[in-house]
Structures are given as C-alpha cells and as structure tokens.
C-alpha cells in the first residue's frame, strides 16, 4: 500500500486517510468514547471493549458479577477481562441495545423522563440492602472516588472501619482551615453508617435507554460500600445542564439524605480555603461563631 506520514494517521487506529482511500474496508470497530487515558470501542453490533490503565485498579467485573447474581438490575454481561504486558486493562462487554440518556434526553417527553427516573430509583433501592461494616470495595479493597474525597480519582482510600477513620482521610483537604472552623465543621459531619453499596456515578452517559424506558445502568467500576448518603449526594453533582436536569429528577425519586448532601457541598466549598467564594466566606463566618 505504500508508506504514509505518521502525523497523517489516526491516533486511535494508526490508519491514514490515504490508506483508507486505497482500501474498501469499512471497519465495524470504532472508538465512540474517550476520557483522560481511557477509551471505549464498539466491536460490531454486539460488544464493547473498554481500555484503560491497569492502575488504579477497576472493580467493574467483580461488581458486575456480584450484582447480576444478587439483583435484577439490568447490567451488561462481561465476556472477558485481561491486562496485557503493557499494563493496559481491557474489559470486553455485551453491548446494550439503545442509546445513552445524554443522547436521548432532547428527544424524550417529560413523561418518559419521569418514568426512566422512577425505574432507575427502583433498581437503586435494591442496593440499599447491601450493607457492610466497613467503607470498602468488595473483598475489603480500597475505594476510589475523586468526587467524594476531592483528592483525585486515582487515589485509594480505606478501607475504613469507622466514621472517624473516614473523617481523618476526608479532612486532609481541610488542613489549611483554621482549627476552630475545622472543629466546628467536624460537628456537622453526618453519620455514615450503614455503609451501603453505591454506584456513585449516575451521570446521563451511564444510563442506557430504549423505547423510552431504562435499558441498563452501566459503568460500575468505582462502585462499593460508601456512606449511606453518598448515592443521593453524588446524584447532585450535575455535569452540564441536561445532566443536572436528569439528576434533579432522579433525586426526587430517591431516598432523601439532605443532611449528607449539604455537608458535602459545604466540604467542597471549604476545600478552596483561603480562596473562598461568597458562600464559602459566609460559611466560614458561621463556623467561627460556633
């Protein structure tokens, strides 16, 4: 076929436009999602292939197997999992028919949006029965949550056998806070037990829909036993206008944990100290008066 300039090649597959013109082959293997150092490929019409670094570890397969054995939550099957010699981790999964909620949202009626939120909340209710004496992943592995701890998504935490252990790890982000304010804020720390199995990332790209109904909940790689209020709180972190609309609707159908949500929102503000916005400054004034 001849040589081609490397800078002309697709960064994902190495194929150049010139080579494509010389060949009638149209690949059914396509990259359809990428974020940071990971990507997801469609493999024909039946499978998807997820690629990411092996570190930090992913718990998607063990979580998927556990939930499929113990719940009726619609989750795609895993066909194969492996780590190659370059320390890249791969998971080959069944492809869910339909589309993600982000794509479907503008086309859905309000009635369909409400129904999908109700269906999602009903399935999440099944997770509430899975509780554990520690904050941990399955097998007592550490948990990973960039949003909860605000210390980066690849940072391991725990396992924690008590709320106090959890607070000590969480409060690392508050080490610049005046001691009086930090002690006052500690008193607002809500009880976290029972540590409850939690998805923790119910963004609209992780909700699959078909025919105006929920088809599957995907991306369980960071699920684990978290504070009882974390699922509700995490569903308050909107990543864009439509995702915020979806999560607001979903929260209205979920078990309410407003105290936990308010605590985390205040924690998020205080992590910016001393560069606080107006609401953060007002919060600091309250804490220093207590």
Could you please describe the fold and organization of this structure?
The structure is a single chain. It is globular, with a radius of gyration of 22 Å. The chain is an alpha+beta fold and 290 residues long. The chain starts with 16 loop residues before the first helix and ends with a helix. It contains 11 helices and 13 strands. Strand 11 and strand 12 (213-217) form a beta hairpin. The protein folds into 2 domains: 6-94, Phosphorylase Kinase, domain 1, CATH 3.30.200.20; 99-289, Aminoglycoside 3'-phosphotransferase, Chain: A, domain 2, CATH 3.90.1200. Helix 4 packs across helix 9 (241-253).
User: Any idea how many domains?
Assistant: 2
The secondary-structure class comes to alpha+beta
Give the DSSP E fraction (strand runs of 2 or more residues): 15-25%
CATH class category of the largest domain: Alpha Beta
Short description:
This protein has 290 residues and is α+β, with helices and mostly antiparallel strands.
Q: What structural keywords apply?
A:
single chain; 290 residues; alpha+beta; Phosphorylase Kinase, domain 1; Aminoglycoside 3'-phosphotransferase, Chain: A, domain 2; 2 domains; five-stranded antiparallel β-sheet; three-stranded antiparallel β-sheet; 11 helices; 20% strand; globular; disordered N terminus
């Amino acid at each position: 076929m001849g040589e081609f300039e490397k800078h002309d090649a697709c960064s994902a597959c190495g194929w150049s436009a010139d080579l494509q013109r010389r060949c009638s082959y149209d690949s059914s293997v396509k990259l359809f999602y990428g974020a940071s150092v990971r990507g997801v490929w469609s493999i024909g019409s039946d499978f998807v292939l997820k690629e990411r670094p092996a570190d930090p570890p992913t718990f998607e397969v063990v979580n998927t197997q556990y939930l499929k054995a113990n719940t009726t939550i619609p989750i795609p099957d895993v066909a194969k999992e492996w780590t190659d010699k370059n320390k890249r981790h791969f998971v080959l999964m069944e492809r869910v028919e339909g589309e993600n909620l982000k794509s479907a949202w503008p086309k859905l009626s309000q009635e369909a949006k409400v129904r999908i939120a109700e269906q999602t909340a009903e399935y999440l209710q099944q997770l509430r029965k899975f509780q554990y004496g520690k904050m941990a992943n399955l097998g007592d592995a550490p948990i990973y949550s960039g949003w909860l701890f605000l210390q980066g998504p690849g940072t391991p935490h725990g396992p924690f056998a008590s709320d106090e252990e959890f607070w000590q790890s969480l409060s690392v982000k508050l080490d610049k806070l005046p001691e009086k304010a930090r002690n006052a804020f500690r008193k607002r720390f809500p009880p976290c037990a029972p540590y409850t199995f939690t998805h923790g990332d119910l963004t609209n790209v992780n909700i699959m829909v078909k025919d105006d109904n929920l088809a599957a909940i995907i991306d369980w790689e960071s699920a684990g036993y978290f504070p009882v209020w974390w699922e509700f709180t995490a569903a308050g972190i909107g990543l864009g206008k439509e995702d915020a609309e979806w999560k607001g609707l979903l929260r209205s159908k979920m078990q309410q944990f407003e105290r936990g949500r308010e605590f985390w929102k205040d924690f998020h503000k205080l992590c910016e100290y001393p560069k606080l916005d107006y609401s953060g400054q007002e919060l600091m004034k309250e804490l220093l008066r207590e």
